[in-house]
Structures are given as structure tokens and as C-alpha cells.
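re: ur question from yesterday

yeah so i grabbed the chain u mentioned. its 518 aa long if i counted rite. heres the sequnce exactly as i have it in my notes:
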Amino acid sequence: MYNQGPFADWVPKPLMLLLIIIFLFPVLAVMGVYTGSTTSIAGGLGTYTEFISLANNSTTIGMAIAITIALRIKMRFRSKEIIATSAIILAVVSIIIATTQNPLVVVFGSFLIGFFKMFPIIEMVLPVMFILSPSGDKGQFYAIFYPLTIGNGLFASYLMTKITWYSSWEAPYFIMAALMLLVAALSLIFQHNKRFCFKMPLYQIDWLSMGLLTISAMFLNVGLVFMKQQAWFDSPLIVNSLIIGIVLMAVVIYRQRFLKRKLIDFSLILKKSNLWHSLILLLFLGVYLASSSIFVQFTAGALDYNNLINDKLNLWMIPGIVIGGMYAYFSFKKNWHLKYYVASGFVAFFIHTLLLYLMIQPQMNIEMLYIPMFIKGIGMGILYIGIWFYASINLEMDELLGIIGILLLVRNFLGIALGGSIIGWASYYGQWDSLNNMVMHLDMNAFQNGMSMYGPMQINSILAASKKILGTLCLLSIPALIIVLTHHYGRFNYRRVVIFRKVIRGNTIKGYRLGNPK
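ran it thru and got these C-alpha cells back, copy pasting raw so excuse formatting
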């Protein structure tokens, strides 16, 4: 027998809602690396922070790979089997990470956490989608769901950073392991034993392509994360990692052309303008999200704020994300043009970057950063919802899940990692250039203690480099807005094309209207 709901028939509906919350939010919060604890984990393991960043990206890679086969897994196993088994694996891997001394175990464990957390998320998202949007309106669902998930992630990150600050970096993993075991126990008690639909075999999954895609993403991960630490392209490790990653990705794309049951239909990216346009916008979004490294570098290096203060400051993004969701809800309800909605998101990021450019100084205090973080939250809410909504237009469920894997890789890994590499390079050389300019006009013999100048000069170099990068990011909003405002977003006006051609040819346009007739 089939039952498309996740819980048994005897469970009361109010209890079902409570169980969905208990299942969904801890599974969303569990991570391989809790970002606010990055330096604590690196210090505890005695390794470079790059290994921890590698592990953080591995979680995203695992989620992206898992979502390509999520539909097959759902059709093969019962909902109880999926959630209980995944929760137990997440608990075990969290304990392994908390007890290991090898950073590579953290990297591999983070990939497993990302991979196995995606299946229970899918199981819970489907009933949440029906609750939030009974009519099946994607815009209405995204407008509510994304603020909930992003806000949950920011709040969970703050809690884990606070736990780490007052105890140890291992404590969050033990807490999440206990929560995952609780989820598994509740799943065994309250979920039914029925299937979602007919049973489908797993041998039809293209396991080879999935493995090649994983290896490709991990090589790209190594190349992009270790760029600064390995002296950029002077290192054979960086060059070889990037080449292998790109070649394997090309092999996966080529292989998909000849398969009957494709893991990912890459041809859709070329056929559908909404997909390739969304990928371009996600790269821009990734660069802006990566700019947070400049903010953290300045607050930690120049203002001497700790990770807990930085994560507490990030909570100011939550009200902005909620406002972005409300704006999306009314925008979709009133059928406003998606072009201007997406453009407003990049405008919000421009304002956020401009405020940081104008505000950062050695004497600033934490209160000055509340408004920029609030505006950043608005931009995140708008672009996460708007770009994802546009990318999912006119896609079937099996097509959508495969493409979502690529979109997720670009948004949460490739865009941020690539942007972080570029910003890291710019920050490194910006500081060297600033120090060189200052040293040209200093004579240490004129000071009683020449080494006392090192600290102020270092802070000034960080400030100068940060100003240059933030100014460049302000200018980056110009091409981003040009790309957005020149795209049709499904509302192509042929009348304007005709008028434009007549103007180019020198013909008269008297009597023509710019708008389409109503």
C-alpha cells in the first residue's frame, strides 16, 4: 500500500506539525563544520584553516550529489527507512568528527553529512510545501521557506559558536549527534511502514557519473581553497587539481549525452535561458557572499572581535531576510515583474557594500555594522528566492532535481569558493602594496622602538586593502544590474524588438506603442 504522508494515520495533525519542526530544523542545522567555530576546530586539530574550509565546502558538495538521486531513493525506500537510517548515520559521523585528530577525516565526514542530510530534508520539504502552499505555487513556497531555512542556519550557527566558545569545539557535534538519534527514535515511533509509490531499483542510477562528479568537485574544492596557502598558480597542486576537476567535469557532461537515464541533463542549461541566466547570477551572488571574508578579516584583525561577536552580528541579517521573503510573497502575489525584483536584490548588496566601504575604520564600534548586515539580509533573501524561482520555471520534477544539484554547487560552493579565491588574492596583494607604500616613507631609525610601528602599519594595510576590494565590489554591481535589466525573465516584448529594428534601419515608428496591447 502507498501513503504519501510521512506519518502514521493515528498521529494527530497538531502533533504532525510539531514532528515536522522537530525533524526538519535539526537536520537543516547539522553540518560537517559550524562556520563560527572554524578557527577553534583548526586550533584543536593543529592544522590549517584551509582544511576546515575544505570540509565546509565538502558538505555542500555532498548535498548537491545527493539531490541528483533523491527521487530514486525516495521511490526505493520507505520514508521511515530513509529518515531513521540517515539520522543514525549523521549521528555516527558527527561523533567521528568530534573524536578524530585527522583533518582529512573531518573533510570526508563533512561530505557524508552533506550527502545523508539531504534525504530527510526532501522527506520533510514535501509536506512543508503542501502546508505552506496548498495550491502548489512555487513563488509562495519559496517566499516562506527560504527565510525559515536561512534564518534557522544563522541562528544555529550562532548557538554552535556560543557552545564552542564556552566549552570546546567538539561539543556541538555531540549535541547534534544526540538530536539526530532523537529524530531517528521519533521516526521509528510515529512514521508508517508504507511506501510513497511503486518500488524502483537502484541499479538504474548512473553511479559512475555520480562518482566522477564527486571527484571533480572535490578536486576543484582543493584547488580553490588552497590557492592562497600554496602560492596561487605557482603550485603544481593547484594547477593539477583545477585541471583534473575541469577535465572530469567535461567527461561527466560528455557521458550524459549518450545515456538513456541521465543523472543530470546538462543540455537543459543551453536549451533554457532561465537556467544559464540563473547560473550567471548565482556566480555574482557567490562573489558578494564571499565578501564576508573581508568583513571578518577586518573585525577580527583590526577591531579584535571574536567569532562569537561576529556570529551575533550575523543575526541582524535575519530581519532583513524576513523582509526579503515578505517582499517576494507580495511580489509573486501581485505578479510584479521578476526582473525588477531580482535587480533590487543586487541593489541591496550594493548598498551593503557601499556602507561597509564608507564605515570601516580603526575606531568604529559594533553598533555601526547593524544596518549594513540588515541590508545584506534583504539582498540574500531577495536573490535566494528570486534566482531559485526563475531557475525552476518549466522544469519537471526529475529534471529539476538534477539541475538543482548543479545550481547548489554553483551557489553554495563554486561561486563562493571562486569569489573567495579572487578576494583572497586581492587582499593579499593589496596589503603588500599598502605596506610597501608606507615603508617607502618611513625610517625606523627615527623611532625609539621601530617594531612598535608594525601593529599600526598592519592594521592600516588591512584597512587599505579592504577599501579597495569593497570599492571594486561596488563597481561589480554595474555589470550585474546590466545583465539583469537586459534579460526578459519570460516576458519577451516582441513589439519593442520590431520598433528597435525600425529605428536602426531609419524607418518611421509613428503610431507604434512600446507596450504590448492589453
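noticed a couple things. DSSP finds 20 helices and no strands in the chain. also The first helix runs from residue 13 to 29.
anyway ttyl
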